[in-house]
Structures are given as C-alpha cells and as structure tokens.
Specification:
This protein has 5 helices and 4 strands, in the order αααββααββ. The protein is an alpha+beta fold. The chain has a single domain, classed as Trafficking protein particle complex subunit 3 (Muramoyl-pentapeptide Carboxypeptidase, domain 2), CATH 3.30.1380. A 4-stranded antiparallel sheet has the order 1-2-4-3. β3 and β4 form a beta hairpin. α2 packs across α5. The radius of gyration is 17 Å and the shape is globular. It starts with 10 loop residues before the first helix and ends with a strand.
Length: 152
C-alpha cells in the first residue's frame, strides 16, 4: 500500500496537520470561553448566521427536515448528521464528528466549551437558513452525540 497522497503528502503529514489544527481549535475555543464566559453562544450563533448567509442557497419556506438535509450535506466532510423527528420533538444525531476526534486527541471532555461553541454555530446556520429562531440543547455526548432542537 502506498502511504503517499495528493501532492506528495503522506498520511503522517496529514496526522501532523490534524494535530496542529486540533491544538489551534482548542486554544481558539478556550480563549473565546475565557473572554466571553456564558456569552459564548452569541459568538457561535453570529458566526453560524454569517456562514449561512454566504451559502449559495435560497429556501422558500423550508421545513426543519429540508434545512437539516442541506446542513448535513454542507458539513459532511467533518460530520455525519441526521435528524430524528417524533411528533414535535426533533433530535439531531452526530454519528461522526471531527470535534469528537479533536476532544479525544486533546483530552478534552465532550460537551464543554468546544462543543457548546460548535452547537451555537450550528444553531446560527440552521436559524439563518430556516429564517426562524432555533434552540438546541446537547442531550448526549459520546460515540454518538445527540442534540434536541426546536424551532422557537
């Protein structure tokens, strides 16, 4: 098996790059949490809304299901996202999560600042696309993460 990848980079090069990016995301998240404290959600939400504004997408009266399908497709490189709906209750399931891998690599407990910042960002993206306020709450962290989500 050949360990060389695109542009002559090896899997070891990719591993080193991932380690560096994980370090930078950890420091970035920690800094925002130290500065903002409980207001970390507003930073993530604003960033998410700004990101969604740049998507080349216009949805006319979208449902949560339509919106989540678009978000899952846009984030598929780092996340495996699905939506489970039962009546008025909706849960976003993260089967695969690049942030979980970062937490594991850095020894960070899941559900803390990094996850909260990402979920606020995620809420902002969905909020902007669906044109209605969204609120999510992390309900389970682990090999599969689950987040209750509701349209307000």
């Amino acid at each position: 098996m050949n360990n060389e990848t695109i542009m002559g980079l090896t899997m070891e090069d990719h591993r080193k790059a991932f380690t560096e990016v994980a370090f930078l995301i950890d420091i970035f998240t920690s800094t925002i949490d130290n500065i903002m404290g409980g207001s970390i959600a507003s930073v993530g939400r604003i960033a998410g809304r700004d990101t969604a504004k740049k998507y080349p997408i216009f949805l006319d009266n979208p449902s949560l299901e339509d919106t989540m399908a678009i978000v899952a497709d846009r984030m598929k490189a780092g996340f495996g996202i699905s939506l489970e709906t039962a009546g008025d209750d909706s849960t976003v399931i993260f089967e695969r999560c690049i942030l979980r891998e970062i937490c594991n690599l850095r020894g960070i407990e899941m559900g803390n600042a990094m996850c909260r910042l990402f979920h606020a960002y995620f809420d902002g993206v969905v909020n902007e696309l669906i044109s209605r306020p969204i609120k999510s709450e992390i309900s389970q962290c682990g090999q599969q993460c689950r987040t209750r989500i509701r349209i307000q």
